[in-house]
Specification:
Layout lengths: L2 H18 L20 H14 L3 H19 L15 H24 L14 H7 L1 H38 L3 H25 L13
Helix pairs in contact: 3-4, 6-7
Length: 216
């Protein structure tokens, strides 16, 4: 029996009992009898779904979106053209990164489900003005703006220089602008991006985007 048939049968039985109950027995004659309003299957289903959604927190939705992103990108990686000469296929590294990213997203989802619902006091009233919204979401906004700048500079400066600038600006925006911190951010940006650039270009013979202005 389908779900709708079962719900319809239950509603019909409840309505029959309700109609029969409208004839007051003799012992209740003249008294006001409270009769409960008949329920519907749609109301019951909505209440169950609402209670289930209330037990989830925001991180659960973020983890699900990340898993969907990894799945779509992994599926798209199979459309990368394989070269005719004997080198490492260009689809290997995206798949490795997406696999690691997907595993981390699964761990993130499991931890979020174990944590339970959000504390009502954890997220105060969200801002209503543009500047308030920017201050409230400052870290995500600066990450997206920095990455867009990196993509715009990539054809002109190449992956090495634009990558170093991206990491330096992002670390400085999130970690502070003091002289000591700026020095640390510069060293981290040069070491991380420069090390990966050497690994791919010299160790794995992978061709990375070069800049029209820099030639590297």
């Amino acid at each position: 029996m389908g779900g709708k048939d079962l719900c319809g049968l239950q509603e019909g039985r409840h309505q029959d009992r309700h109609v029969q109950g409208q004839v007051d027995p003799p012992e209740f004659a003249g008294r006001r009898v409270h009769r409960a309003a008949p329920y519907t299957c749609d109301q019951t289903t909505s209440s169950i779904l609402g209670a289930s959604m209330d037990r989830l927190n925001r991180d659960v939705y973020v983890a699900v979106v990340l898993l969907l992103f990894c799945g779509v990108m992994l599926w798209a990686s199979f459309d990368i053209r394989e070269p005719d000469y004997g080198v490492l296929p260009p689809s290997i590294w995206p798949r490795v990164i997406l696999t690691v990213f997907g595993l981390l997203s699964v761990i993130y989802l499991v931890q979020s489900l174990k944590r339970g619902p959000d504390d009502p006091q954890a997220f105060p009233g969200e801002p209503t003005t543009v500047m308030g919204w920017v201050r409230y979401w400052w870290n995500p906004v600066i990450c997206f703006v920095s990455f867009c700048g990196y993509l715009l500079l990539l054809p002109w400066l190449g992956m090495l220089i634009s990558g170093m600038l991206f990491v330096f600006v992002l670390l400085s925006a999130l970690g502070g602008w003091s002289p000591r911190r700026l020095g640390i951010h510069a060293v981290v940006a040069a070491a991380s991006v420069g090390g990966m650039w050497l690994l791919f270009t010299q160790g794995l013979n992978v061709l990375l985007p070069t800049g029209e202005l820099t030639g590297i």
